[in-house]
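Appendix B, Record 12. Input sequence as logged:
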Amino acid sequence: MPQLPLEIQSAIFGKAAEDHPGDFCTQKHVIDLECAAYLEVQALLCSGYEESDMHAILTAACSDWPGSYQMQLHACQHQLEHRDLLARHQDDRLPRVVVDNIKAKAAHDWPLNLMLRYLAIERQCEAWLAIEEMRASA
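Logged structural output:
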C-alpha cells in the first residue's frame, strides 16, 4: 500500500474498527477501499483539471462526505462528469440567448452542484420547447 499521511491512515483504520468491531475481514476490505479512494482523490487534485474547479469540487465533496474517501471520490467523479457535460452542452433547437439565460440561471441556482445544474438546464430547455409547441398549436 502506498504511504498515506499518518493522520489519514489513522482515521481510516479507526473508522473501520468502529464501524465493524471484531470483523477483521470487513475492516481490511474497508481500509483497502478507503486508502485507494484517498489516493485517487489526491491524483485528481494533480490531474489536468482547472485547479479552481477541482478545489471547489473537492471542498464540496469533503463537506458532504467527511471521512468517507470512497464517497468523496464518487462525488468528485460525478461532478467532473457533469462539468464536462456542461462544457459541451448546446441545444440548437432554442435561440442562443434563451440557452444562455437558462445556463446563467442554473449556475446561479446551483453554483456547486454541477449535476443539478446540468439537469436544470436540460429540463428548462425541454420546458421552453414544450411551451413553444403549445403556442404554435394554439
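The chain has six helices and no strands.
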